Amino acid sequence: MNDNNQIKKLINDGLSNHQKQNYSEAEKIYNEVLKLSPNNAIVFYLLGTLMAQNNKNDLAEELLKKSIKINPKNADAQYNLGNVFQKQKNYSESISSYYNAIKIYPRYIKAYYNLAEIFSEQNEYEKSIIQYKKILEINPKHLQTINNIGIVYVKSKDFINAEKFFKKATSEDPNNAEFCYNYGTVLQEQKKYEEAIKEYKKALSLKPIYPKTLNNMGLSYKKLNKFIEARQSYEEAINQDPNYSLAYKNLGNILDLMCEQYGAIEAYNKSIKLNPNNLSTRWALLNTFPIIYADNNSILEFKEKFLKNIISINNFLDTNISLSKEEIFKGVLNSANFYLHYQGDNDIEIQKKYAGLIERLSIMAYPNLHNQTNYNKNNNIIKVGFLSSTCFIDHSVSSVVRNLILKLDKKKFEIYIYHIAEESDEITDKFKKNFKNFFSINNVDDIIKKISQDQLNILIYPDIGMDPKIQLLASLRLANAQCQTLGHPVSSCFKNIDYFISSELMENENSNKDYSEKLFALSGTGQCYEYPKIKTTPEKKFNKKETIFFNLQNLFKLLPNDDDLYLEIIKKIENCKIWFIEGKNTSVTSLYRERLKKLFDKNNVNFENNIVFKPRKSQSEFFKLIDNADIVIDSLNWSGNVTTHQAIAMNKPVISMPGKYMRARHTYALLRKIELDETIANSKIEYVKIAEKLAKNWGYRQKIIEKIKRNKKTLFEDLSPVKSLEKFLHQIA
C-alpha cells in the first residue's frame, strides 16, 4: 500500500473511532497520520475538533490554527475555532472566526446562529437579529431561528415584534410546547392575559409536565384577579417540581392577596430555603401584613415578625456584601411596608429600622448619592422638583397635593415634574400643559440621572410609602433640601428627607416627636382642594323609619378595637343601617365581615339586618351612595380626607373623633375649618351620642346641614396653604 492510501485509510479509521466516541483511539490514529504527513490540514482540523470535544480548549485552539494556516479555506475549521474561542469567553476572536467561516461559505447557518447567540448575550440585540434574519434568508422555515428572534425581541422589550415571530413559530409548528409557552409570555408582557392563558394551556396540553408554564399562567391569572386559579397554577407547578423556588414565592404573593398571611409566610420560607440568596423573596416576607386583623394580638404578632425579618435581612446582607444593583432592585422594588402604617400606632422606631435597611441597600447600589449637594440657584429662581407615582394621575394623593403644585408662583419657582407611574390620564395632561419641565420616567437609573442633571435646590416627594420605587429614591440625596408631604401621612425616617410638610389643623403641640424630619405645618388644612365635580340632586327627605350611616373608608383602615363603635351605634339607634364599601377582593370583605359579625353575635345584636357592604363602583356611583346615605361616620385610626371633602361638598354631616397622629386627624381638621365642632367627638361615648342626636333629631340634623352649606366654601380652593408653601420653600432654598 502506498503512503497516500495508507494515510487515507488511517484517517478513515480515525474518523470511525471519532464518530463512535472512541476518542483515545481516534487521537492515537490522528497522531500516527501526522508522523507520516506533518502538514496535513485535515488531520490538524480533526484532531483540533477532538480536543475541543474533550474540553482541551488551548490544545484545540493550537491545532485548529495550524489547520487554518495550511488551508485557510476550510470553513468548518474556522467555525470550530470560533466555538473554541466562545468556550474560552474570547468573544471578539470567536466572532472573527465565525465571520471567516461565513466568508468562505456564505450559507453557513450554524455560524450565523452562533453569532446571533453571542450578540444576544452581549445585549447587542440589533446585531443578533441581523444574523438570525440572514438564516431565514437561507431557510425561511428554520423554526428555532424564528423562535429565537422572538426571544431577542423580548430581551430588547420590543414585545410587538416578539409577538409576530412567536405567532409565526406556533403557526408553523402548533405542536411545539416551547413555542406556545414563549408566545404566552410575550402576550402576558403586553397585558393580554386571557390570550396568554390560552397559549399556556396549549403548551400544557402538549407537555403536561411543564412547571414554568404553570407558574407563568398563575401570574396571568393573578393579573386578572383570579386568585383561586392563580393559586392552583402555582400549587400544580410545585407538585411537578417540589424544588421550584420561584413558584413558592409566587404562591406566597397570591396567598398574601387572599388574606392568608400565615400560608404566605410558609410559602416564602420554603422559597428562601430553596434559594437563600434571593433578596426579593426575603423582602416579600418582610412586608407581609394582614390586610384585615383578626384581633389586637395579631397586630403585635406581625410587628414582632416585621422586626425579626429586618434583623434577618441585615444578617443576610452581612454575608452578601456584593449584591448587584439588579438583585437589590428585585428586593427593594418588590414591595413596600404600606400596611404597617394601618395598625393604629406611630411605630416611628420600627420605621427607622426599616428606613435604615433601605438606606443600607441604596448605599450598596448608589454609594456616591448620599452626600449633601450644593446646587446654586438659577438667577435667584428656586428650582423645585416634585416626584410621584400618584400625584400626576387621578388618585387620592393627587386630590390632596396637586393644587399646591399647580398654583405655585412660576415667576418665583422653576418647577420640575417627575411622573414615574406607567399610566397617565387627564390629570397627567394637565401637568404636562402647565409645566414645560415635565418628565415621564419609569426606570430608576434614568430618574436619578435626570434629577441629578437638573441640579434641584429642593425635591419634594408627595407620597413616600405608597410606592417601593419611591422609597429607594427617597433614601438618596438628589437635591439640596428634600421634603415629603401629607400625601402619605407617615414619617419616612430617611436621613436624606429633611422636612415633613403637614397641616396646622391636623397637628398638635406634641406632633414633632412623630417625625424624624423637621415638621413644617402649612396653614389651615394644608390643602388647596378642588371642589369635587358632583352632580347635585334634590335634598333627601328625612326618613323617620330608617337612618343610613356610611363609613367611606377602605376596610383595612378599620381596626378591631374600633368595632365596638359600630355595635353601640346599632344598639342605641333603632332602625338604622351602617354601610361599608367592599374590599378590593372578596377575602378582605369576608374577613372584616366575620370579625364584625362575631362581635355582634356575642352581644346578641342582629348583624344581617344592620350591616350592609356596598360594591366598589365608579366615582359617580360612589357619589350616589353618599347621596343616599344620611350621615357619614369617620374611621378612628386613619381618618378620611378625600372622602370627607366629598361628603361635605354633598352637605352630609360627618362625625369624627381625632386620634393621636396626623393621619387620624384629617376629618377633624376639615370640620374645624368649616367651624363644625358639633360633630367632633372627644370619646367613643360622645361619638355615639352625636350619631344618636343626628339620627333622631331631624331639626338638629337640618341645622347642621345648613351650617355645612354656609361654611363649606372655605374648605375648597383655599390659597393660603399655597402661600404658606411658597414662604417655606424660600426659607429652605
Total number of helical segments? 32
CATH topology of the largest domain: Serine Threonine Protein Phosphatase 5, Tetratricopeptide repeat
The rounded distance between the terminal residues' Cα atoms is 98 Å
- As a percent range, the share of strand residues is 5-15%
Give the tally of β-strands.
12
Decide which structural class fits the backbone: alpha/beta
- Average pLDDT confidence is 94
**What would you report as the Rg, rounded to the nearest angstrom?**
34 Å
> CATH first level of the largest domain: which class?
Mainly Alpha
> Which homologous superfamily in CATH is the superfamily of the largest domain?
Tetratricopeptide repeat domain
Biggest sheet: strands, sense, closure?
Answer: 7 strands, parallel
The low-pLDDT segments are: none
Number of domains: 4
Describe the overall structure:
By secondary structure, the chain is α/β, with parallel strands linked by helices. 56% of the residues lie in helices and 8% in strands. It has a 7-stranded parallel beta sheet with strand order 3-2-1-4-5-6-7, sandwiched between helices. Strands 10-9-8-11-12 form a 5-stranded parallel beta sheet. α22 (426-434) links the parallel β2 (413-419) and β3. The longest helix has 24 residues, at 296-319. The protein is elongated, with a radius of gyration of 34 Å. The mean pLDDT is 94.
